[in-house]
Amino acid sequence: MPYVITEPCIDVMDRGCVEVCPVDCIYEAPELRMLVIHPDECIDCGACVAACPVEAIFEDADVPDEWNEYIAINADWFDK
Ligand code: SF4
Ligand code: SF4
């Protein structure tokens, strides 16, 4: 289950998660004003969760209901 970045990252984008990701699968999505995780490259290590100051990152199965759309928002960004 890959990890997903959700709404609290918007306009924060401090890149704390990028610093700790061992496989560099977190990318800046300027038009979304947030960062996104590549669902196929993520190795599900969970290291990014604690690095995020605004608790924006969840395993996809644990994303709060109100932010469920972000599962697709992360994945779809890489289809473009
Ligand atoms: S769970 Fe691990 S591999 Fe996936 S984005 Fe976070 S730090 Fe990177
Ligand atoms: S650490 Fe959190 S707020 Fe900072 S860029 Fe990553 S997801 Fe966004």
> What profile does the largest beta sheet have?
2 strands, antiparallel
Spatial ordering of strands, largest sheet: 1-4
Quick check: average pLDDT?
97
Distance N to C terminus: 22 Å
Q: How many structural units, i.e. domains? A: 1
Bound molecules: iron/sulfur cluster
Summed up, the helix count is: 3
What is the general shape? Answer: globular
- Uncertain runs: none
Backbone structural class = alpha+beta
Level-2 CATH architecture? 2-Layer Sandwich
Portion in helices:
10-25%
Q: Please give the CATH class.
A: Alpha Beta
- Fraction of residues in β-strands: 15-25%
- Can you tell me the CATH topology? Alpha-Beta Plaits
Q: Helices and strands, in N-to-C order?
A: EHEEHEH
Q: Work out the number of β strands.
A: 4
Query: What integer value in Å does the Rg equal?
Result: 11 Å
Q: What does this protein look like?
A:
- The chain is an alpha+beta fold and 80 residues long.
- The chain has a single domain (3-77), classed as Alpha-Beta Plaits.
- Helices cover 24% and strands 18% of the residues.
- The protein has three helices and four strands; from the N terminus they run βαββαβα.
- It has helices at 16-20, 47-51, 69-77, and strands spanning 3-5, 26-29, 34-37, 57-59.
- It has a two-stranded antiparallel sheet with strand order 1-4. Strands 2-3 form a two-stranded antiparallel sheet.
- Strand 2 (26-29) and strand 3 form a beta hairpin.
- The protein is globular and about 25 Å long.
- It starts with a strand and ends with a helix.
- 22% of the residues are buried.
- Bound molecules: iron/sulfur cluster (SF4) (2 copies).
- One iron/sulfur cluster is lined by residues 3, 20-21, 23, 25-26, 37, 42-48.
